[in-house]
Design a protein that fits this description.
Helix content is about 75%, strand content about 0%.
Length: about 150
Amino acid sequence: MARSSILDRFRLAGAPGPAGPVGVPVTGEQGPAVELAPVFAALAPDVESSAQMVQEARREADGVLSDALEDAAAIMARARLDEGAQRARAASRVEEDALARDAELLARARQEADDLERSRTALLPGAVRQVMERLWSEQLTSGQQPQRP
C-alpha cells in the first residue's frame, strides 16, 4: 500500500452512480493516532528539552530560594546582635540627656541662690537700719533713752 496521507481520509467512498455523501473515510482502521504519530515523533525532542529546562529552572529556583533564606537568616542574626548595641546607645543617650538636664537645673538653682544671696546682702543694711530705727523710735516713745552702739 502506498504511503497514507491525511487527504486519503476524505476520498470519495461509495459506488458509482448518483452523488453520495462526500468526505466519508474509506476505512475506519486508520485514525488520528496514525496521522498524528509523525507529528508527535517530531515534537518528542522538543518536549524532552522543555522538560529538562523546567527541571533546571526548578533546581535554580530552589538554589536562589535557599540562598535568599540564608541571607535573610544572616540579616536577622545581625539585626539581633545590633539590637543590643542600639539599645545600649539609646540608653546612654537618654542618660546623658538626663545628666545634662540635671546639670542645667543645678546651675540655674545655684544662680538663683546666688542672686537671692546678693539681693539679701544688698538689702541687709537697709533692713538693719529700719529695725534699728523702729527700736529707737519705740524706745523714744516709751521714754527711754536709746543707746547707740
